[in-house]
Amino acid sequence: MKSLSLEEIQTLNDSEIETSKAIEKILGPSAIKIDNVTVSFKSKNGIYTAIKDISLDIKKGEIVSFIGHSGCGKSTLMNTISGMNTPSHGEVIANGNVVKGPGPDRGIVFQNYSLLPWLTVFQNIYEAVDSSFKNISKKEKIEMVEKNLKMVNLWEHHHKLPGHLSGGMKQRVAIARAFAINPKILLLDEPFGALDALTKSSMHIELLKLWNLDHREKTIVMVTHDIEEAIFLSDRVVVLNNGPASTIKEIVEVNLERPRNKKDIVHDPKYMEIHDKLLNLLIDKFSIADY
Ligand SMILES: Nc1ncnc2c1ncn2[C@@H]1O[C@H](COP(=O)(O)OP(=O)(O)OP(=O)(O)O)[C@@H](O)[C@H]1O
C-alpha cells in the first residue's frame, strides 16, 4: 500500500484523516519513508550514480537489513537516511520530517566504533547525552550513562579508555551511546563486521535485549554482509542490485517468530528457505563446477 506524502496528508478531509489513522493503526506508522531516492556523486571522471529511484517504507519498531555486494550502495542509502548524504532526487522522511541533515532522532553506529580515544568509556557516553539533552540536570545525565552502560554489562569498565577495551567491548560502548541518546531510529552500518564470530553472536543477543527492553519501539536499520545475521535480527531483508545506479532487487520477509533462539532457528524449515532465497539472490556460483 502506498503511504501518503506530507502534502497529501495536509489535503485530507476529516473523514479521510480518520480512515488513514485507522489504516495506520493496523499497519503501524512509517518511521522512515524513502521516496524515490537517487544519490549521485561528482568525481573527477564525471557523475557517478550510486543508487537510483529507491523507495521503501520502514515501519516503527521494524528491524530492516540492507544486504548486497561490496560497493552496491548500502552505506550510501544508510547515509541518506542519517542525513549525511543529500539525495540528488527524491527525499527521505524520518519520524514525519524531511531529512535535511543528521539529527538526534537518528542514532548511528559504525563498524569502527567511532569512540573518542582520549575520553573514557563514561565520558564518551556522557558527552553524547550532554549534547542531546539540554534541559536535564547533571545528576540525571550521569544516571542515564550508568543505566546504559549497565545494560551492556560495561559499568565496571566505565573508567577505561577505548584503547584498553576489546573490539566487542568497544562496540557495546558504541551501542550503549546510541541507546543513551534515545533516538527513535537506530542506524547500524556493519556494526559487527569487525568482530569474531562468537563476539558477534553475543552482540546480536545484546542488541535484541536492548530492543526488547525498549518495548520493541525503536526502528533499527542495519547494513550487513552476513546472511545469518540479517535473518536472525531482521523483520525484512532488502537485497540491493550491484551498482552503478543500484536499485532494490528484492525484499525478503523474515516471518520467523520472536524471540528467536540462535541454536534452534537454523533447524526451522522457514529459516532454511529464507537462507536459500538470500543465497540465491546474492551468489551465482556455488562450486567450481559453476565456473
Ligand atoms: N562520497 C563519495 N564520492 C564518490 N563516490 C562515492 C562516495 N560514496 C560512495 N561512493 C561510491 O558509491 C558506490 C557505493 O558505495 P557504498 O559505500 O554505498 O557501497 P557499500 O554497498 O556500502 O559497499 P561496502 O559493502 O563495500 O561497504 C561505490 O562505487 C562508491 O565508490
Automatic annotation (TrEMBL):
<dbReference type="GO" id="GO:0016887">
    <property type="term" value="F:ATP hydrolysis activity"/>
</dbReference>
<dbReference type="InterPro" id="IPR017871">
    <property type="entry name" value="ABC_transporter-like_CS"/>
</dbReference>
<dbReference type="Pfam" id="PF00005">
    <property type="entry name" value="ABC_tran"/>
</dbReference>
<dbReference type="InterPro" id="IPR003593">
    <property type="entry name" value="AAA+_ATPase"/>
</dbReference>
<dbReference type="GO" id="GO:0005886">
    <property type="term" value="C:plasma membrane"/>
</dbReference>
<dbReference type="GO" id="GO:0015112">
    <property type="term" value="F:nitrate transmembrane transporter activity"/>
</dbReference>
<dbReference type="InterPro" id="IPR003439">
    <property type="entry name" value="ABC_transporter-like_ATP-bd"/>
</dbReference>
<keyword id="KW-1003">Cell membrane</keyword>
<dbReference type="InterPro" id="IPR050166">
    <property type="entry name" value="ABC_transporter_ATP-bind"/>
</dbReference>
<keyword id="KW-0813">Transport</keyword>
<dbReference type="InterPro" id="IPR027417">
    <property type="entry name" value="P-loop_NTPase"/>
</dbReference>
<keyword id="KW-0472">Membrane</keyword>
<keyword id="KW-0547">Nucleotide-binding</keyword>
<dbReference type="InterPro" id="IPR005890">
    <property type="entry name" value="NO3_transporter_ATP-bd-like"/>
</dbReference>
<dbReference type="GO" id="GO:0005524">
    <property type="term" value="F:ATP binding"/>
</dbReference>
<feature type="domain" description="ABC transporter">
    <location>
        <begin position="32"/>
        <end position="267"/>
    </location>
</feature>
<keyword id="KW-0067">ATP-binding</keyword>
<protein>
    <submittedName>
        <fullName>ABC transporter ATP-binding protein</fullName>
    </submittedName>
</protein>
